[in-house]
Specification:
181 residues, alpha/beta, Rossmann fold, six-stranded mixed β-sheet, globular, binds 1-O-pyrophosphono-5-O-phosphono-alpha-D-ribofuranose, binds manganese (II) ion, binds magnesium ion
């Protein structure tokens, strides 16, 4: 285990099993469609990659890079588009893949944007949901796991760009971010 991790909240096996469950569900739901899966970089990368391996029907992938945390523990409240989609959203069935919904700012910004761009339907799929963090009213359609109000890292989630590569979700030892809160 990484030396900066205090405890593992969700194991690699739990995550992989959930990805399979979600991917198979999406396969059934979109069997006769050609949805556009949108991964929200960078955090959603491992989750999107694992979920889509279990989607056994036609699906297109694209990515959007938005950032609201800028290396901080708390969201700045301002969402910035770092990279936009290459694909037209109009008339498409959209599946947004996220690693976590915390304040909800990132997703509510994206949902508004895709509505404005005339998506036919929008589904929000998130690995983690932290309901206690919410400052705007938004709910995911599919949630992998609920997490407590702690700063979690791993499997796409970073602290200062570290830990995204861990195969599990864990809580950092306080000494790692001591004096920065
Ligand atoms: C994190 C996370 C979500 C978002 C959730 O991304 O990956 O996208 O914040 O927080 P919110 O619900 O409060 O908006 P971040 O902006 O840190 O960029 P990253 O994915 O590149 O780490
Ligand atoms: Mn993110
Ligand atoms: Mg981040």
């Amino acid at each position: 285990m990484n030396q900066d991790i205090e405890k593992v909240l969700i194991t690699k096996d739990n995550i992989q099993q959930k990805c399979q469950e979600i991917g198979e569900g999406l396969t059934k739901e979109y069997m006769d469609k050609f949805p556009l899966a949108i991964g929200v970089l960078k955090g959603a990368m491992p989750f999107m990659s694992d979920v889509l391996r279990y989607v056994d029907t036609y699906i297109e992938m694209d990515f959007m890079d938005v950032s609201s945390y800028g290396g901080e523990m708390k969201s700045s409240g301002e969402v910035k588009i770092v990279k936009d989609l290459d694909t037209k959203v109009e008339g498409r069935d959209i599946i947004i893949l996220e690693d976590i919904i915390d304040s909800g700012l990132t997703l509510s910004y994206l949902v508004d944007l895709f509505k404005y761009r005339k998506a036919k339907s929008i589904k929000i799929v998130t690995l983690l949901d932290k309901p206690e963090g919410r400052t705007v009213d938004i709910k995911a359609d599919i949630v992998g796991f609920q997490v407590p109000n702690e700063f979690v890292v791993g499997y796409g989630l970073d602290y200062q760009e570290k830990y995204r590569n861990l195969p599990y979700i864990g809580v950092l030892k306080p000494r790692v971010y001591k004096g920065e809160e």
